[in-house]
Amino acid sequence: MLNIIPKPFKAEELPGKADARGGFAFSSAPWEKDTARFLKNISPAGGAKLSVTVKQDALLGNEEYTLEVGENGVFISACSGAGYAYALESLRQLFSAGGGLLPCVKIHDKPRFARRGFMLDAGRYFIPVNEVKKFIDFMLIHKLNVFHFHLTEDQGWRLEIKKYPLLTSEGSKRSHTNFNCKPHGGYYTQEDIKDIVEYCHERHITVIPEIDMPGHMQAAIHCYPQLSCFDRKLPVATHWGVKHDILCAGKDFTLQFVKDVLDEVIELFPDGYVHLGGDEAPKMRWELCPHCQAKIKKLGLENENQLQAHFISEVKEHLKKKGVRAITWNEDEISGKAPTDIIWTVWNVTEKELHKMYAEMERGRELINSSSVPNYLDLTYNKNPLKAVYLQPVDICKKHEKMLGAEASLWTEQLPTIKRAHFMTFPRLGAFAEAVWSEDTARNYNEFLARIPAYEKLLKSAGAVRIASVKRANPGKLFGALEQLWFNKVQLCWHGLHNLIDDAKVKRKYGKKQGK
């Protein structure tokens, strides 16, 4: 058994051991930064170094590699820096597991899915740059290649936009969180973002920023009230849940604001994608808004859902002119007008919704599977146990050519500390990584569990501060039920009663003007 997660495509174990306790000596290193990072990440005990020979092989795929360990040396072949980096990560795991004594082996490895993502939510709780970089390092260990960075929320705007400085000077801070009295804040300067993006690129990771719209924008509305339908001065949200004040889709100012923000965003994130969110956008305000209703009438639209589709389409076209693809979350109700050249991140993959997903792919839409069950890592181990993450039907859409890959998401409403974030992420991220990298026929859950001790050792050396045990990650019925009950207290933090009272106030004040 090779202690490598995710499991390689093909591996042949050979007799003997190679002694690398003294470290490695690279006779050639066409990808110098990857080599330097690898040498920094291992801890040789001293003594003779094991030779490593690296060969560029144009016949291999972009992320494909071969790794051969013999008693007299290591031989690596790769086409690109990405394949080479993944070969080194496999070598690093063998080194870590064996304390420097490597099993002799021939490995030919390549990914099952081309797109293997991880989403990090820094909107609810700001995550310092050094901790973001640790998550990026963990991504490389797991051979994940797309970093989805969720940067804006009702509870905080985390990205410096120079044309709209209030977004961070005021919108990045909230007075408290739920029912405590402790302020929270933080944001990334543009220099911070450039540093993070470069850090990702050095690790062969594509970066996709998310600027959620038209919902999840209360922090922005706090800074610029004219973005809302009724110019309401609102606080940066202090409680979780869906907020009913969203961007006004009927005002020219709103569209200009969004375009201005995105123009700065695409300069900072050059990988050709921007995630526009598009989820959880209640239309109560739009139904009462004279600007939105006038826009619906002018465009000949049937309802507010179609207005959102039009709004997102306008933003998508702005990005398209600049060579950038738009991505959104899929919605429970499809307006029928959503542009098919927008990629959908599918979070609510259920049997009931599957027919919609197939229909969208037949229409030509590309999808990314980010099904909340089991790919939301913030959900309880009762809801998404380790075994379910490992055995998930990742190709739920039967590996349709429009299914680009999969993504694991770490939302942070219930993860106020890095310690808690790591506890919920590991070992589930290992199970997810193997599900998207390794072929179905190669995967075996019990054999995966046997590799967990070596995996935990590696993660701790890489900076993981807390890892759930296998038993904790697969809770029994009683403990799981108690865990779920405790988690469900989040419902108390959703300000549902506040929303109902506020809706009544808005309707009483503005509904009469619309005759509603």
Set down the secondary structure blueprint:
Blueprint: E1 10-19, E2 24-26, H1 32-41, E3 50-56, E4 65-70, E5 73-78, H2 81-98, E6 101-109, E7 115-121, H3 129-141, E8 146-150, E9 152-153, E10 156-157, H4 166-169, E11 173-174, E12 184-185, H5 190-202, E13 206-213, H6 218-223, H7 252-268, E14 273-277, H8 284-288, H9 290-299, H10 304-321, E15 325-329, E16 343-346, H11 351-362, E17 367-369, H12 372-375, H13 386-391, E18 403-410, H14 418-425, H15 428-437, H16 445-450, H17 452-461, H18 470-473, H19 477-487, H20 496-514
Parallel strand pairs: 2-3, 3-5, 7-8, 7-18, 8-13, 13-14, 14-15, 15-16, 16-17, 17-18
Antiparallel strand pairs: 1-6, 4-5, 4-6, 9-10, 11-12
Explain this structure to me?
- The protein is α/β, with parallel strands linked by helices.
- It has a domain at 10-109: Chitobiase/beta-hexosaminidase domain 2-like (Chitobiase, domain 2), CATH 3.30.379.10.
- Helix content is 40%, strand content 18%.
- It has 20 helices and 18 strands.
- The chain has helices at residues 32-41, 81-98, 129-141, 166-169, 190-202, 218-223, 252-268, 284-288, 290-299, 304-321, 351-362, 372-375, 386-391, 418-425, 428-437, 445-450, 452-461, 470-473, 477-487, 496-514; strands at residues 10-19, 24-26, 50-56, 65-70, 73-78, 101-109, 115-121, 146-150, 152-153, 156-157, 173-174, 184-185, 206-213, 273-277, 325-329, 343-346, 367-369, 403-410.
- The strands form 4 sheets. An 8-stranded parallel barrel has the order 7-8-13-14-15-16-17-18, surrounded by 6 helices. A 6-stranded mixed sheet has the order 1-6-4-5-3-2, covered by helices on one side.
- Helix 7 (252-268) packs across helix 10.
- The protein is elongated and about 85 Å long.
- The N and C termini lie far apart (68 Å).
- The model has no long low-confidence stretch (mean pLDDT 93).
